[in-house]
Write the structure tokens for this entry.
Amino acid sequence: MPKDQGIGASSKRREDVRFLTGKGQYTDDINRPGQTYAYFLRSNVAHGKINGIDTSAAASAPGVVGIFTAKDLEAAGGVPCGWQVTDKHGEPMKEPKHPILAEGKVCHVGDPIAAVIAESLNQARDAAELIDLDIEELPPVIDMRAAISGGPTVHDEAPDNICFDWDFIADNKEAVDQAIAGAHHVTTLTLTNNRLVANAVEPRCAIGEYDAARDEHTLYTTSQNPHVIRLLMGAFVLSIPEHKLRVVAPDVGGGFGSKIYHYAEEAFVTWAAKAVGRPIKWTADRSESFMSDAQGRDHQTKVELALDENGKFLALRCETLANMGAYLSTFAPCVPTYLHGTLLSGNYTTPVIHTNVKAVFTNTVPVDAYRGAGRPEATFQLERTIDKAAREMGIDPVELRKRNFIAPDAFPYQTPVAVQYDTGNYGATMDKAVAMADLDSYAARKTASEAKGKRRGLGIASYIEACGIAPSSLVGALGARAGLYEAATVRVNPTGNVAVMTGSHSHGQGHETTFAQVVAEMLGCDEANVDIVHGDTAKIPFGMGTYGSRSIAVGGSAIVRSVEKIIEKGKKIAAHLMEAAEADVTFADGQFSVAGTDKSVDWGTVALTAYVPHNFPHETLEPGLEETSFYDPANFTYPAGAYICEVEVDADTGKVDIASFVAADDFGNVINPMIVEGQVHGGLTQGLGQALLENCVYDENGQLVSASLMDYAMPRADDMPSFGVDHSCQTPCTHNPLGVKGCGEAGAIGSPPALVNAVVDALSDLGVTHIDMPVSPGRVWAAIQAAQN
Amino acid sequence: MPSISMTVNGKSVSGEVEGRTLLVQFLREDLGLTGTHVGCDTSQCGACVVHVNGESVKACTMLAASADGAEVATIEGMANADGSLGVIQQAFQDHHGLQCGFCTPGMVMSAADLLQKNKNPSEGEIREWLEGNICRCTGYHNIVKAIQAAAAAGA
Amino acid sequence: MEMQGERLIEASRNEVWTALNDPEVLKSCIPGCEEMEKTSATEFTATVVQKVGPVKARFKGAVELSDIVPGESYTISGEGKGGAAGFARGGAKVTLADQDGGTLLSYAAEARVGGKLAQLGNRLINGFAKKVAADFFDRFQAVVQGDTPEAEKADADAAEGGDAPPEEQKKGWLKRMIS
């Protein structure tokens, strides 16, 4: 019988009640007394020199409280980058300043130039219309190849527009070159991983407030990691001591990576709230989100895979151009490097791998991590290339993958790209997916599709990802300017109920439910007695937040460590109460007992005693029952799985319909199956959106022409199928206490190649070998025409 | 500024608004009904769906003045009289039809309008009806299940 | 984007050329033009109201005539700033040639937009720009030929653009010149 509480139960989400009744509190729902409104005047050219900004007419417009430009912010630092990559010459990456408001030049459409603060948003916007900008337009560089081939320069610091030129692993290069030169077969594929916009349905919002009497700043912001924002903004941008700066990230309406980063608008409203002496709210409209939220992906790659006559992989070589956009966003440099190069072994035993990544500045919105971040790019390269190799060599695509899977008994497995997989069973998830997809009757379905005049295609993909980010010592060696542990405080109240303060941040993941399940399981109490507190630096210990599928694996582990300490202290109190030796006290089902006796005290008595210590061994034990832990993982976690997609393609129109999609994932242990499945559904849809629909497009002048939800094709209900998902193939993580791996990004990583492989399969007899994402009707139709001519 | 009055969730309300004030701004800023959300500026996302005179409407596409005299229902009015979740709301919780919750008010209001018009919609009909509501979290799978369950429960 | 077109105008080449250089004519022919002032022999300032898809804006900017070969050809170009709506730039190379029954006016126009216009109206811009260019030369033809009904029709088509021009501007240009 399924459990109805604790680990493994599909507990209903407690946070749903407020969201379903309109009582959620998102940042834009907050209004502060005396609040004013900020409007940012943004560049509408991609590249230009600012010759003058005349704000005089705007300053006298109705309701205007203040107008600010870069010269007002001279004392402030730039928006910092949190990761430094060292290039193949041993040089640090080029790191041009990213000012809060544009200093002398604009580098992308949407670059903020001036900010107007007024009594109402309409007044701020109206006044901004009166600002006279004198911008001398410069030729922009949009295309990455043009950027590195003598195109216009975005920043003087990087005359060739190359931020860094990175070899990984440099020592493998010669072996890879030799293996490819002498191989039985080499499959080559050039592909683009299309630029995406995260488009969390809640636009970004920030409210700055300053309490002069206490000299305290507060920032309410749509963030996935309030402490990271406090540290970056306080220490690097505004020089506000951390103890005088509170950052609150209340209910947040989705992030998908785009709300990790510290943004200029957050720094501006925090700074300006003091300058004008009143709270300031800024809320992006969707057009502004398109021009100012960090975007995702945008890699161009050439892949070469060497195989022997039996289809065994011998070597892999990948050369990538990765678009950084106009400035380095917070974690941008790590995406195409350490979140990408390290995953190029995939689920396979490829013995030698080499990749070169050139990160390129262009006059476009900055690019950073988006759901999966680097791992979808690596997986797409591998899985598309393997599929092409299978077709070229006449080997079944499932069989070719299986021949190269790392065997279940080969773990821990050291890859040639630095990481060590702790555990996995890739054949098991592939077998599961094949069974779920009912491939035995595929031929009949194909015939049925053909009878309707459609072509049917079958696409297979495996994936592995490195998440549970991440061991601080490892990421420090790789260039991170922060640690990536997580913190949790568990506070038992005198009456026995529990508050958990976690550094993880929930913006849809359901932590308030899942984390309570973990604590309730360990304490043997009802979940309702456990409250999860997150998102406010004034309430929680210093934590690193939520991204990289890290919350349960790292944040959950920190909670486990704190609960373990609570239980240990409870045993000491219980031993004292029962006059027993501490070593003889056991804890189970909410009762402390003395082994081998009928003596026990309940949880409530121990909790109360901790806070009413009238009879307490003060010489050996402090009152209170509250513990904090900082958990730093020993390794990444490595979720993996196999996805199978079937499509129907109308060759006359190029329209692709997803006929079915099944996903077999290994997430290790699962705390709440309902929530895990929901995460997979969402990830799959984002991946399928990338593969089928979404594309962020700039024209040759750098105008962002897909900057509304009318033109940027988000997946909608009628674009998607119902999914078949399974997480029963479990190889628990060996190095965290819950045996969990994380499930947030998997769907977005494995699904794009499964879909594209299916479309190519449907069209392969016409001679189509590849179509870049999104496989829109126009592209499919053009690929058919090109293959036939 | 013109004065307007309307009934929102059964209560009479009134206010003075600029001509350009949208219904969603009036609900959120003047009435403090922040359950109705703004997710875009082109009437695409559907986070702002409310009912005006019984029909689902994108409140970002209607001027507040255009709703003068109307009966408006928002997510805040969807719970049962005792405060417990209504049938559709309960189905969304039971079937995990929401994650971040931001699109949810619009989804629930759209679903309610669908189920008024079609007591027993097929999966395809539900998906087509939700074309104007974007959810970035759930992949729609569990939203569809929730609406089917709500239909079965007689919503 | 680039657009081409031609019109056979029932007037002499000299009459057409004169009209092409008359700010009153240009003002009445530029769809949505609210104001136009001559600031030099070849330069004008103008205010034009336009609506592209969901974006409506009042553009303020300059119109310039260049590459002038009297009686034969010139390039008319303009740049307008529409505040939050972004900017629009465009130009047309206009060439005149004698032809039976009048003057053949050929144009090759190009247009570029930026900011919100590009973001929201991109799908519509090509069609929109073609329509604006065609409207301009339709109106021009009507004004020069004195086809009042056509000119009124063109104005009605562009009524989104703003206030209707004064009544006398709808009269044929030639008629006004001689009345």
